[in-house]
Specification:
By secondary structure, the chain is α+β, with helices and mostly antiparallel strands. The chain contains 15 helices and 21 strands. It has a six-stranded antiparallel barrel. It binds flavin-adenine dinucleotide (FAD). Flavin-adenine dinucleotide binds next to helix 1, helix 2 and helix 15.
Length: about 425
């Protein structure tokens, strides 16, 4: 006899869980509160959907700052290569780009969603759109189904929570799964934003729109100057502070407590040149063109929108010439080039965060099945779990792998009852 498995949430994890449950012989029903499946998937990878990463397992683990070991069994059950094959088998060709990032060949996230929809249809999964789950239905430590609006109860032999986190709430991720699981007896670790830009002091706003490539960003605690992050790459200035790949990585790797205390940032704008190299260059320029303006030298050394900021910080009038540059001013200029300072006031909010940090405690979930250790017949998948990764396709792979394992385990659980 077929047993019903309800999947709450039709995002990346929920769709994969439904497919996997049906593949393993279960009758899967997805409840999705939006008008369509995979609303967030549409906007992933700037509309291109960086759906996984072709890195090996060790590299995968290095890109998951929180609870990577919990995911071993899920990755073994459904790996990055399995996801690539899944898409290809369901009509979506794929490609690997720089940094081993995998995308659909068409560069259209909608093609990933189409492949998932095809797979669900092929496996006879029922999809109930515009249907919001309000609570779990639990009796004597076992899940009996879900509760919908107007207290309508829908029975099931197993339930998978795949409701996502709190980021980009307009896509439907409003944290319902945390509420359901807390009520069911699970613990949820403190939640905050990750892969998110920073609010900074006014100096950053003066350069909004500017992107820097190949710079070193260093961040330390404002309280005790402890170094917290250092990386080379790209970053940009915005109307509120800083953003870009380096900043997103830093937001994921720095502990929340440090953001509460405040951070101090430094940008090395000339990573290929030492302070000594820069000093020699300025002395050489001064000797060969003493009448040249300091502003013209800065225009050679810096992006245009930083020149006036530098002149202001150095209190040097625009018309001053190189021969009038004092030793102190030269040293200060070199210091700014090697360690341009700014203050970080905090991380931006959930409307701008790629992912939620924190979630349902992993030690309350069986890593081999994604089954709850607290409620029988309850399974968990995706961002709702306390696991999150850096950018590069790792977060979606967490959703596919935990979704697949939860779906399969729920079907096996149903066979045994
Ligand atoms: C702008 C942006 C870009 C991103 N780009 C990438 C990328 O390129 N690569 C990558 O790896 N990751 C990316 N991510 C992260 C990735 O989208 C998430 O890791 C992934 O979507 C998590 O999948 P999920 O299924 O757990 O949650 P979600 O995708 O959020 O799905 C949860 C679903 O549950 C539904 N739901 C919630 N509550 C209920 C309820 N009570 N009843 C019924 N339905 C409910 C929601 O409507 C939603 O459809 C990006 C995220 C954002 C915001």
């Amino acid at each position: 006899m077929k047993k019903d498995i309800i999947i709450i949430g039709g995002g990346a994890a929920g769709m994969m869980a439904a497919y996997s449950a049906a593949l393993a012989g279960g009758t899967a029903v997805v409840f999705e509160k939006n008008e369509k499946l995979g609303k967030k998937l549409y906007i992933t990878g700037k509309g291109r959907c960086n759906f996984t990463n072709a890195a090996d397992m060790q590299e995968f683990m290095e890109n998951i700052p929180r609870n990577p070991r919990f995911l071993y069994s899920a990755f073994a059950a459904f790996s990055n290569n399995d996801m690539i094959s899944f898409l290809e088998e369901n009509g979506t060709k794929t490609k690997i780009e720089r940094g081993k990032r995998a995308f659909p060949l068409s560069d259209k996230s909608s093609d990933v969603i189409k492949a998932l929809n095809r797979a669900l249809q092929k496996r006879g999964v029922s999809v109930r759109l515009n249907e919001e789950v309000k609570d779990l239905w639990i009796e004597e430590g076992a899940v009996k189904g879900v509760v919908k609006e107007n207290n309508e109860k829908v029975s099931a032999d197993a339930v998978i929570i795949a409701t996502g986190g709190l980021s980009y709430p307009l896509t439907g991720s409003t944290g319902d799964g945390y509420t359901f699981s807390k009520k069911a007896g699970h613990s949820v670790t403190p939640l905050s934003t990750s892969l998110v830009p920073f609010d900074c002091d006014g100096i950053c706003k003066e350069m909004q729109g500017l992107s820097l490539k190949n710079v070193r960003l260093s961040l330390c605690s404002s309280v005790n100057k402890k170094p917290l992050f250092s990386g080379v790459g790209e970053m940009s200035f915005t109307h509120f502070g800083v953003s870009g790949p380096l900043v997103l990585s830093a937001s994921s790797l720095i502990k929340d407590d440090f953001f509460k205390e405040g951070l101090f940032g430094k940008i090395d704008l000339k990573i290929a040149l030492s302070e000594e190299d820069l000093k020699e260059r300025i002395i050489r320029e001064t000797k060969s063109s003493p009448k040249r303006s300091i502003k013209a030298l800065l225009e050679d050394l810096l992006p245009r929108s930083m020149v006036l900021v530098f002149l202001n910080l150095l209190s040097i009038p625009k018309e001053r010439i190189l021969s009038e540059l004092t030793k102190e001013e030269r040293d200060e200029l070199i210091r700014l080039l090697k360690a341009f300072p700014f203050k970080v006031y905090g991380k931006r909010g959930y409307n701008e965060a790629v992912i939620t940090r924190g979630g349902i405690k992993v030690n309350e979930i069986d890593p081999k099945t994604m089954g709850s250790k607290i409620v029988r017949g309850l399974f968990l998948a995706g961002e709702v779990i306390d696991c999150d990764a850096l950018t590069g396709g790792f977060n979606l792979q967490i959703a596919w792998s935990t979704g697949f394992l939860a779906g399969k385990s729920a079907a096996l659980f149903c066979n045994d009852i």
